[in-house]
Amino acid sequence: MTATQAAGSEGTDLAAAPRLDDLMPWSVAPLRLGRAWVRAPDAASLKARWNALLRAPDEAARERLFRVSRARTPHSTVAQLPGQATPTGRLAVAAGPCPEPVRVLHGPYDRQWLLPDHRLIDQARPELWRVADARQVFVVEQAHLPQGAGFAVVPAALLPDGRSPAGRPGRVRPLYRRPDGREPNLAPGLAALLARRLDRPVDAEDLLAWIAVSARHLPSGDRAVPLTADPEVWAAGVELGRRLLWLHTYGLRGAGEGPRPRMPGGRRPYVRAALPARGLPEGFSYDAADEALLIGGGRVAPVPRGAWEWYAGGVRVLETWLARRTARPDGADGEPAPGSLEAVRPTAWPPEWTTELLELVTVLALLDEARPEIREVRRRTAEGPRIEAAELRAVGILPVPTASRRPASVLDHPEEGPGGQFALL
C-alpha cells in the first residue's frame, strides 16, 4: 500500500470514528493570563516580580508594571482561585507577601511556575482549579500543524495553560468532573458498552490510555478516536497508553518501569561538560553527529535526534524550552524591555534547570521510541472490527446529554469571593 492509499484509508476510518468531544464531553477553554510576567520557568523570578510590583513608587508606576487589560487592573475585585489562599482585596493597596507559586504546564511539555492569584489573571478558568488534585489528569488538545507528527492530545498531571506556540490552542478536558477521581468525564453509558463489547472491565483510565494512543487530528479541526472491538488490540493499546501517560506526566500518572522515566544504561543523557557557573549560556545548538546538545560551553549527551526533532505546536520542543531560558533580558530580539516585570529573570543558570532538561530529553526520547508501537496499534485498529459513532448513536450514548458538557457542582467548602466575601456556588 502506498502512502497516499494509506492516508486515504485512514481518512475513511476516521470519518466514521467517534469524536473526542463526544467521548469526553466536558471541556474548558485554555487559560488566558493577560500578562506574561505572572508565569516563569523559575519560582524565584515570580517572587522578585511581585516584590517589584509592590515597591512601585506610585499608582501610575504600579499600573504600568501590572500591564492593565480590559479584564484586570490593580483595582479589580475578584473571587479567590479554588484551593489557593490568596487575598481578594484590591491589588492597588496590596502589601502582603507573594502568593506561593504553583507548578503548571505551559504548552504540552514545558513545566513552569505561575502566581495563582486571580487578581493577576484575565481568565484563570476556576472550574479547572476546582478539580485539580492528585487523581486528576487533563487531556490537552494540540494544534494540527504540518511540522512533525506529534500527538493530537497530550495528557497532563499539572494544571495546563493549554497554550500552543503556533496554531489555534485546543481545549482542556479533565478526566474527572469532581475532585478525588469522582464522576468520570465520559459519555454516559460509554464505559459499560465498551466492557460488554470487549468482555472485560473498562474504567475511565483505560479509556484515557486508549485516547492517548489513538486520538487523531481531522481536517475540520476535530479529534477522532477510533475504538477497536478487538479485545487483544484494546489490551495492547491500553497498556501502551498507560506508558505514554506515565511519560507525559513524568511518572505521576499511568504505569511504567520505576517511579520516573529513565533511559536504559548507556543511553541516559548526562552533563558531559558543565554549563556556565556564571551568567546565562550564550546560545545553544545541536550536534547531530555526536548526539550532543551544546549550551554555551556546556555539553549534554547523548541526546537522540528524535528528541531534538520532536515538534509540538509547530516548534521544536527542546529548542523552544532552551530559548525561553537563555533569552537576554535587555529588550533585544523582541525580548521584554528593561524595566518590565518580564525582564526580571535569572542572571545565571539555576541547577534545577539542568535536572529538568535531562528529564525532558528522556521523556522526548522515550516518546519517540514508542512511535512504532503507536503505529502498530493504529494499524491493527484500522484493519479489525471497530465501534463506530453510528453504533453509539444507535444505542443512545450519542448525542450526550447537555448536562454532561457543563461543569459539575463541586463546591464542598466556602470559597472567598471579592473583598473577603464568601462565594456560594
Describe this structure in words.
The chain is α+β, with helices and mostly antiparallel strands. It has a domain at 270-331 and 347-364. Helices cover 32% and strands 15% of the residues. The chain is built from 13 helices and 21 strands. The chain has helices at residues 3-16, 20-23, 43-54, 59-66, 126-131, 190-198, 204-214, 231-248, 305-308, 317-326, 351-369, 371-383, 389-394, and strands at 39-40, 102-106, 110-114, 138-141, 153-156, 159-160, 172-174, 176-178, 182-184, 216-217, 223-224, 227-228, 270-273, 284-287, 292-295, 298-301, 311-312, 315-316, 386-387, 415-416, 422-423. It has a four-stranded mixed β-sheet, covered by helices on one side. The protein has a four-stranded antiparallel β-sheet with strand order 13-16-15-14, covered by helices on one side. Helix 7 (204-214) packs across helix 8 (231-248) and helix 8 runs antiparallel to helix 12. The radius of gyration is 23 Å and the shape is globular.
TL;DR of this structure?
By secondary structure, the protein is α+β, with helices and mostly antiparallel strands.
pLDDT averaged over residues: 90
Radius of gyration: 23 Å
Question: How helical, in percent, are the residues?
Answer: 25-40%
With helices defined by DSSP (H or I, 4 residues minimum), what is the helix count? 13
Biggest β-sheet description: 4 strands, mixed
For the largest sheet, list the strands in their spatial order.
Answer: 1-3-2-6
How much β-strand is present in the residues?
Answer: 5-15%
Low-pLDDT stretches: 1-11
Q: State the oligomer.
A: single chain
Terminal residue distance? 57 Å
Structural class assignment:
alpha+beta
Broad shape? globular
β-strand number: 21
